[in-house]
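Batch manifest, entry 17 of 40.
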Amino acid sequence: MWNYQKNLQYPINIKNTNPKLAQIIIAQYGGPDGELGASLRYLSQRYSMPYPELKAILTDIGTEELAHLEMVGTIVHQLTRNLTEEQIREGGFAAYFVNHTTGVYPSDANGSPFTAAALQVKGDPISDIHEDLAADATIAKEQLTKIMMGQAISATITKRNMVLQCKSIN
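Output type: structure tokens
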């Protein structure tokens, strides 16, 4: 059981909607190597760890991944809230919008729903930890960075607030 603090680790305040960017970032929410998969991976694999310390570490990491899931979901929500019909059409967000409006639905960047089929929980500590490392070492963040090169994204982290501003520089 966890003690949930009802605020984000870093509050997020995105000023501008951006459906194209939201379609990319949603992969970090519900994609195969996103935060939902990571949290389930760690929280499921902890049961087969041979030492209490390893179980505790995987529990801590899985819980931290849930916090990341909440932050990524908040980013997607703020990038898509108050979209106009024109932004939905021009941003290529229409197919997503038809199914989910501006709800944050766990999917990859192609719109494929989250599936646990991308996870491995073998019950063997070495195999499970190796799989965790492989999933965390994916180049998803590098790929996101390359894709977002056409975006000016500034993040200001203060003691109480994280402000993300997204502007197209094309």
